[in-house]
Amino acid sequence: MSEAKMYVNPIAEKYSKDINGRVIVVDKSGIVKGDSNKEFLGETFRHKEIQNALNGQTSTNTFKFKEYGHVLYVAVPAIVQNRVVGATLLSISINDIYKDVNHIKLNLFFISIVCILLIALISFIFSGFAIMPLERFTKVINSMAKGDFKQRVEVNTNDEFKNMAYAFNAMIMKLDQVDKQRKEFVANVSHELRTPISSIKLLSESLLHQDEDDINIYKEFMMDIAAESDRLNNIIDELLSLVDLDKEKLHLNYKITYINFLLEKIVNRLKPLAEKKDIKLKLYLNEKIQIKVDSDKIQQAIINIIENAIKYTQEGGEVKVSLYSQGKWCIIEVRDNGIGIPENGLTHIFDRFYRIDKARSRKTGGTGLGLSIANQIVALHQGNIEVESKIGKGSVFYIKIPNDIKL
Ligand SMILES: Nc1ncnc2c1ncn2[C@@H]1O[C@H](COP(=O)(O)OP(=O)(O)O)[C@@H](O)[C@H]1O
Ligand SMILES: [Mg+2]
After folding, report:
1. Which fold has domain 3-93?
2. What does the alpha-carbon distance between residue 358 and residue 386 come to, in Å, rounded to a whole number?
3. Is 36 close to ligand 1, i.e. is its CB under 6 Å away?
4. Range 312-317 average pLDDT
5. Fold designation for 160-245
6. Hey, which of 195, 334, 349, 364 would you mutate to test ligand 1's pocket, going by the most ligand atoms within 8 Å of its Cβ?
């Protein structure tokens, strides 16, 4: 054993114990001068890492051996005065590290599986929460499709579904209301149409079944039949007028109109009707007012209201029509000293077919549609009709139309 070997090997052995690995030292031609395992002493070592180290480069590598498992190689050049004089190769078992890494890998794998399962479970539960309100909506929509507007969506969560349920329920309530109004309207129309038809049938049948020679009786019955036919016509005309108003919501024929002239025309037209009942029909034009209206339609509304005033005022009474402006409003006031309207009737007089006294109204040829039509026309002009009335004293109707109507 050379001196170098004698000197180098114990150091290699000592160092090997310190790091708990193998230490091999070679000289510059690759001959092993120290091997902590004494296995390669004197042999030429041609490991790639050793060759690198002899070329002045430090390099590392890992290998897997059947008998040792994973091993880390580190080869370091030994440099003296800038010259490579040899190299040292350290090899350490890294099985423990691999074991730990594998253990961590396995743990990570299980943690991932658990996480995936947890996420799946949570999303399942939450999707259940999200679907539940939708199912309720679907249920209600299905029953609506079958014509049931009584159902409501109940959502107890505190999110957008709750707001949506509120809006949805408001919509069903509105639909329910519209549906009720429609049914009521159809029922009312049928009833109103049936009444004159029954009268006509009754009158004509009684004529048919009696042997009456007196032509005057025939004439009287025929006059009643003609009056009932007129009534039928009136109802149908007014119904058509209502339907037209619904259709025309968006295209009224607006023109700048002098309301003064319009009122003069209307009052002149209604004078004979008033005179028949000895009612004084007076017109007070305080200002000249020019506004944008559909003149035919507005005329229809005003006529309805003045006709009512004449109709529901006793003989010898008085109807005053005045025109004035108040802020942005053009006001047409129709004041009578007639029979008046009871307080509980005031909220209903604009309803279709509503009449305070059906019997009286039948005699006067009323259909109960006039105010409803007038109201709708004025509403289309972005205005409204207000009423004040005292039973036995008289009534005042204020037709209010804005003078800055927005088209
Ligand atoms: N000036 C008024 N004075 C008293 N009652 C009125 C007056 N205007 C309307 N009414 C009441 O309001 C009801 C509804 O009016 P309207 O819709 O024009 O129907 P009608 O065809 O019976 O005139 C009338 O039947 C009447 O009872
Ligand atoms: Mg009327």
Report:
1. Beta-Lactamase (3.30.450)
2. 23
3. no
4. 95
5. Helix Hairpins (1.10.287)
6. 349
Q: Smallest Cα–Cα separation from 368: which of 281, 239, 215?
A: 239
Burial 80-114 (b: 16+ CB within 10 A, else e): eeeeeebbbbbbbbbeeeeeeeeeeeeeeeeeeee
- Radius of gyration, CA atoms only, the chain: 53
What does the domain layout of the chain look like in residue ranges? 3-93, 160-245, 252-402
CB of 313 closer than 6 angstroms to any ligand 1 atom: no
C-alpha separations of 115 from 105, 123, 167, 211, 273 in Å: 15, 12, 39, 101, 90
Whether the CB of 312 sits within 6 Å of ligand 1: yes
Average pLDDT (33-48) is 87
Nearest ligand, CA 335: 1
Ligand 1 nearest atom to the CA of residue 367, by list position: 21
Q: What's the length of the chain? A: 407
Instruction: Please say whether the beta carbons of 42 and 55 come within 8 A.
Output: no
Average pLDDT in the chain: 89
Between CA 150 and CA 173 the distance in angstroms is 8
State mean pLDDT over 388-407: 92
pLDDT in tens, 52-108: 999 999 989 888 888 888 888 899 999 888 899 999 999 898 888 888 888 999 999
Which amino acid, residue 263?
Answer: L
Structure confidence by residue, pLDDT tens digits, 232-291: 998 898 888 888 887 766 678 899 999 999 999 999 999 999 999 999 999 999 889 999
Sign of the dihedral defined by the CA atoms of residues 399, 400, 402, 403, in that order: positive
| Site to substitute for ligand 1 among 273, 337, 355, 362, most atoms within 8 A of C-beta | 355
User: Rounded to the nearest 10 degrees, how much is the dihedral formed by the CA atoms of 366, 236, 248, 361?
Assistant: 10
Quick one: which atom of ligand 1 is closest to the CA of 369?
Answer: 17
Domain 252-402 of CATH type 3.40.50.2000 = no
Which atom of ligand 1 lies closest to the CA of 355?
25
Indicate which ligand has the atom closest to the C-alpha of 307. 2
Model confidence over 184-238: pLDDT tens digits?
888 888 888 888 899 999 999 988 888 877 888 889 999 999 998 998 998 898 8
196 with 228: CB under 8 angstroms? yes
Output the pLDDT for position 160.
82
Structure tokens that stand for 219 in this block: 């004439």
